[in-house]
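Ticket #4471: structure output looks truncated?

Reporter: J.K.
Steps to reproduce: submitted the chain below (164 residues) through the standard prediction queue, then opened the result file.
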Amino acid sequence: MAELTHLDNRGRARMVDVGNKPVTRREAVARGEVVMAAATLDLLVAGGAAKGDVLAAARVAGIMAAKETGRLIPLAHPLPLTGIRVDMVPMAPDRVLIEAGVSTEGRTGVEMEALTAVSVAALTVYDMLKAVDRSMSIERVRLVEKTGGRSGAYRRGGEGPWPG
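Returned output as attached by the reporter:
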């Protein structure tokens, strides 16, 4: 098992010094979903949400969140992101799938930025639809793949292709 790099030799939290690591292209993709009543998904698809275009607002929220990850996650590094995309696909009968891809040229990876983008996009979907469906749930937020850096490439097994 890999060592926990965010702890010093006395078990105290620390921000890892990445100053000596080489700058490389780093990318990460995360996914998640918001599960809801079928009628709620129908309302979203029809554009009938009282607060406006749910998917457009969630996409922008996810992008903004990725850019703020270093301020939200205590030991994450602030990174100069070179690209962020947030895609969402309504899937009948009862969910919205969310995928975020983030890239940088840097010394540390962007997994947390991709996961933060998915999480905040999902929270925004929930916020914009909660008046009609408080039983929604945010599920399966996970890292799907990452490239770059010392640890190399990672691809989560069992992930199918993105439907979007």
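Triage note (M.O.): checked the attachment and the full token line is present. The first strand starts at residue 24 and ends at 35.
Status: closed, working as intended.
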